[in-house]
Design goal:
Blueprint (H helix, E strand, L loop, with lengths): L2 E10 L2 E7 L10 E2 L1 E4 L9 H14 L2 E2 L4 E9 L5 E13 L10 E7 L1 H6 L5 H25 L1
Parallel strand pairs: 1-7
Antiparallel strand pairs: 1-2, 1-4, 2-3, 2-8, 5-7, 6-7
């Protein structure tokens, strides 16, 4: 059995919403990460992953994201406690709210960072750099597609 985890690559004005995980977290404590969390059991339900990422971002940062997020990538890993996790990253667009560490037990800090700033951070793990690079690539493709349709 897998734990299903979702993360939001939230963009706004050329920057990405990044959290510094609490040092108390059992997995990746003190490291930079996208904001997200585990899907909860809901029985028969639709859009569970999308609703989960919206809920987690709002609960952890106070930021509301727009509907219409897009799949970026997925991966699997095993936590230090031995749990198998499937992680799904969505490209999300900022709607409103001031980013702050609403749940300090989960994120010590919450900040907006450019892709360059993220990639230069020593506490940015490889899985974050891989996910944020894929999100940045998808965002650029979307923007190029929009420009192409206007011509």
């Amino acid at each position: 059995m897998f734990i299903v985890n979702v993360e939001g690559a939230v963009h706004r004005g050329g920057k990405w919403l990044i959290g510094k995980r609490s040092s108390q977290e059992s997995h990746a404590g003190g490291m930079l990460a996208l904001i997200g969390g585990k899907a909860e059991k809901e029985g028969h339900s639709t859009d569970v992953l999308e609703r989960t990422v919206k809920r987690e971002i709002l609960e952890e940062t106070g930021v509301l994201i727009k509907d219409g997020m897009e799949y970026v990538c997925s991966s699997s890993f095993i936590t230090d406690d031995g749990y198998h996790v499937i992680d799904i990253v969505f490209l999300c667009e900022y709607q409103s709210g001031e980013a702050s560490p609403v749940c300090p037990d989960e994120n010590e800090e919450v900040m907006w960072m450019s892709i360059r700033e993220i990639l230069e951070q020593p506490d940015a793990p490889e899985w974050l750099t891989r996910s944020i690079t894929a999100a940045e690539d998808l965002l650029r493709k979307k923007e190029m597609s929009k420009r192409g349709r206007r011509i």
